[in-house]
From TrEMBL:
InterPro entries: Sec-indep_translocase_CS, TatC. One of its GO terms (molecular function) is proton motive force dependent protein transmembrane transporter activity. The keyword Transmembrane applies. It comes from freshwater metagenome. PROSITE patterns: TATC. HAMAP family: TatC (MF_00902). It is a multi-pass membrane protein. Its main location: membrane. GO terms for biological process: intracellular protein transmembrane transport; protein transport by the Tat complex. This is Unannotated protein. GO terms for cellular component: TAT protein transport complex. Keywords: Membrane, Transmembrane, Transmembrane helix. It is found in: Membrane. NCBIfam families: tatC.
Amino acid sequence: MKRDSARAMPLLSHFNELRKRLFKSALAIGLSSFVGWFLYDNIINRLAAPICDLQQATDSGSNTCGVLYINGVLGPIDLKFKLSIILGVLIASPVWLYQLWAFIAPGLHKREKRNSIFFVLFAVPFFAIGVFAGYLVLPIAVDVLLSFTPTSLSNLVKFDDYLSFVMQLIFVFGIAFELPVFLVSLNLARILSGHSILKPWRYAIFAITLFSALATPTGDPITMFFLAVPLTILYLAAGGIALLVDKSRRKRSVNNDG
């Protein structure tokens, strides 16, 4: 009976810890969503700019963006809530990532903790850089896709669908830019050597190109190029860093033996 009670206590302790971490994450996302509510108009204008700029370029007399539309009486408030929550998750990402790490860290060894700190510190900035790169590519992607609209037809875009498209594009870029962080983390954990990362470079570049073609929602060669080229550079840079780490390890090993 005492043994069962002893087993139950750590489990209960872990559950309480998880609940605290989830509460703090939810609170951070809630407060950040409140901030996102006030950023809504500015963000909407920035997201709509690629389509609106195209329309105004072809119709100089238009001051409004008639290509994008919101459907229904509840459409505007639904969109504001949806975008505010998305912004809340993005703004609060350092907090909930830290809470995730803080929950996992006590069960890790010293080296694993060090590696996880590296991953958390670099994962957020690289994801943000990827998101920004996706936003820069967005006008090109929109221009390419809308160019397929027949001249005899009008193309009205529901903003909910457009928002999903934008989120998919920038999310793909954000996740893709995590590649070097992932590779270097595996190297620090002694799972992959620098040589193992760079040896199959031809296959790696082919895989990057294939991923860029399949993952981007547009599927056009221009967007694929803008994703594949930085990914290839980041892959080679990660391999180079891994080689330097391996070299440093060998040096330390020789010094310790000596």
